[in-house]
Write a structure and sequence with these properties.
Chain lengths: 379, 206
């Protein structure tokens, strides 16, 4: 059956789990006593261990970035458009590591894991993570994998923030940073959307202060609403217009409040429904908080150039014209800070109608530049 | 290397910081980086050119010159270069003043509309010149702001900028005797080195 996979796919992949016994000190002041990180790798680590690329995922992402878990999988990993033999992140050249961040709900220790201190799921007791905490945990994973220095750390959106943080926290350990559809910190509007999503979850009667698993329920409605709000910000007005317009599900209007009438309503409900069945509500809260807190320049009075001065990496920054969640202006803030601190940087503003989601799409100009940049990385 | 770039590179000191406006495929910056230890950025808007720059390892930033250089600090570059783009921007005066602000010196090249062929074409045919060198029709051209050497030098004077060097060359970038004697008549391309930095102006070209 494996012959059924496309030629440029990494094919069948099996997630791996790394256990860590040493506590991880967190920004919130607490420790995560023991934990596990679930990850996947694609390609081979070379003898010099110089070809490793770290993939950092966004809000609802996970370790399964490329390939298939089973021949019956309908869809490949979430960034399969960019990872594989001959693709932008060429697995013939690079050894790619993709993990599920701590606090996640796809195999790494998170709120739905059992708290060894109580024998019950962590739930609301799971500590709040920051982007920097994740970077520290990723560095430990790198240590275990024998990777002293990444050829590149790559991520889109919240993943791009982790890539940037790597160059600040571990400047010696990153040669190239690719921050795609990202931002140096959230705007008030970004935080506002996150807060609406969090309130949807927190006020769901099934949330039970975060300990819903102990009650045998999930805050499905809250999670669904959170995803619906989030999803609106991932698409552009044009993309939504193009996809749904004012199209109706049925022939005529029903003049009531219960029917799903417009196509866009149906789509959002489907997205919310699907998401609420597979994602943990506490993880959603944690991820949005990590986004809100991310502001590496705060340590230097808001001076991003000064913050990035320690970086030793070369940078590629890509943005998409219709992305209004993290607009091109946000990427340009990163680029301006990089030029002010005299770093090597390439910046592309890709004309694409898909909005924030564009970073996941096979847009020719984006993939071409992405490939060109990755191809010239010496390993 | 493109002939005009070969002339320009000679005017760029080794180890300097260079901003190349409309850097094209990154040829100049790639050469300067490899041969003169220059550190630089190129601004470009053409997708194919940007892709080539990325492949070459040139620091290319997608940025429209018509939106200014507000993201670069005063005198943050030793040299700001703009080749064959002055006539294509919406506000040549604004971009010149931005270049003078950001760069300690500026190198600018542009086609001379005062060249005898342009004058002859306009005088004899009464129509906007079209040639092998400038092949566009007036209604469909990227070159929306043609000027002559004389016009450009007036603009520089108006912005208190000093012309440090001027080379008038023909289309093959040869600086012949005629373009040395009567540049505005026989020079097809102007290559200027200009500075707005007052300290550097003292005693030069006066």
């Amino acid at each position: 059956m494996s012959t059924a996979f496309p030629q440029d796919s990494v094919g069948l992949v099996t997630p791996q789990v790394m256990h860590f016994a040493e506590p991880l000190a967190l920004a919130c002041g607490r420790d995560l006593a023991e934990y596990q990180i679930t990850y996947e790798t694609y390609g081979e680590l070379n003898a010099q261990r110089s070809n490793a690329v770290l993939i950092c995922h966004a809000l609802s992402g996970h370790h399964h970035a490329a390939g298939y878990h089973s021949p019956d999988d309908r869809k490949p990993g979430w960034w399969d458009s960019c990872i594989g033999p001959g693709k932008a992140i060429d697995t013939n050249k690079f050894f790619v590591v993709s993990l599920n961040n701590l606090g996640g709900c796809n195999g790494s220790t998170g709120p739905s894991s059992i708290n060894p201190a109580t024998g019950k799921p962590y739930g609301a007791d799971f500590p709040v993570f920051t982007v920097e905490c994740w970077v520290h945990s990723q560095a430990r994973l790198a240590d275990e994998l024998g990777i002293e220095q990444w050829a590149a750390v790559v991520g889109g959106s919240l993943g791009g923030m982790q890539a940037i943080q790597w160059t600040i926290t571990y400047p010696e350990r990153v040669r190239h940073c690719l921050a795609i559809a990202s931002a140096p910190k959230l705007s008030a509007q970004n935080i506002a959307f996150n807060e609406v999503a969090r309130q949807a979850i927190l006020t769901d009667p099934d949330f039970h202060g975060g300990h819903f698993l102990e009650h045998g329920v999930i805050p499905k409605r809250g999670l669904m609403l959170a995803r619906m709000v989030g999803h609106i910000t991932y698409l552009s007005d044009d993309a939504m217009g193009e996809k749904f317009g004012r199209g109706l599900k049925s022939e005529k209007l029903n003049y009531d409040f219960h029917s799903v009438e417009f196509q866009v309503e149906s789509y959002l409900r489907y997205q919310g429904e699907e998401f609420s069945g597979r994602f943990d509500a506490n993880t959603y809260l944690l991820m949005t908080k990590a986004l809100d807190y991310f502001d590496p320049a705060a340590a230097h009075d808001g001076d991003l150039a000064k913050t990035l001065a320690v970086a030793k990496a070369d940078f590629a920054v890509f943005s998409f014209t219709t992305d209004w969640r993290f607009s091109p202006a946000r990427s340009r803030e990163i680029v301006d800070a990089l030029t002010a601190s005299r770093k090597n940087v390439c910046y592309l503003e890709v004309d694409a109608p898909q909005g924030h989601d564009a970073f996941l799409m096979p847009i020719p100009r984006y993939l071409q530049a992405f490939s060109s940049y990755m191809n010239r990385i010496a390993v | 290397m493109r002939a005009d770039l070969d002339i320009i590179q000679d005017w760029i000191p080794a180890g300097s910081r260079v901003l190349d406006l409309g850097c094209g495929n990154g040829e100049l910056l790639a050469w300067l980086t490899a041969n003169k230890q220059v550190f630089g950025y190129g601004l470009e808007i053409d997708a194919d050119n940007i892709a080539e720059c990325v492949s070459k390892g040139v620091n290319v930033i997608e940025q429209d010159l018509d939106k200014g250089l507000g993201n670069f600090a005063d005198h943050s570059f030793d040299v700001v270069v703009m080749t064959q783009a002055l006539q294509a921007v919406h506000y040549p005066d604004r971009i010149l003043s931005e270049m003078l602000r950001v760069g300690k010196t500026c190198i600018i090249t542009f086609p001379n509309f005062g060249h005898w062929r342009c004058r002859w074409y306009l005088a004899s045919k009464g129509r906007m010149p079209v040639s092998d060198f400038l092949p566009y029709t007036w209604y469909n051209t990227p070159n929306i702001h043609f000027c002559t050497f004389e016009d450009f030098e007036r603009l520089c004077r108006g912005q208190q900028a000093t012309v440090l060097d001027r080379l008038a060359v023909d289309r093959d970038h040869i600086n012949g005797w005629a373009s040395r004697m009567w540049p505005n008549l026989f020079g097809e391309i102007g290559i200027y080195r200009v500075s707005g930095h007052t300290a550097m102006n003292a005693g030069q070209n006066r």
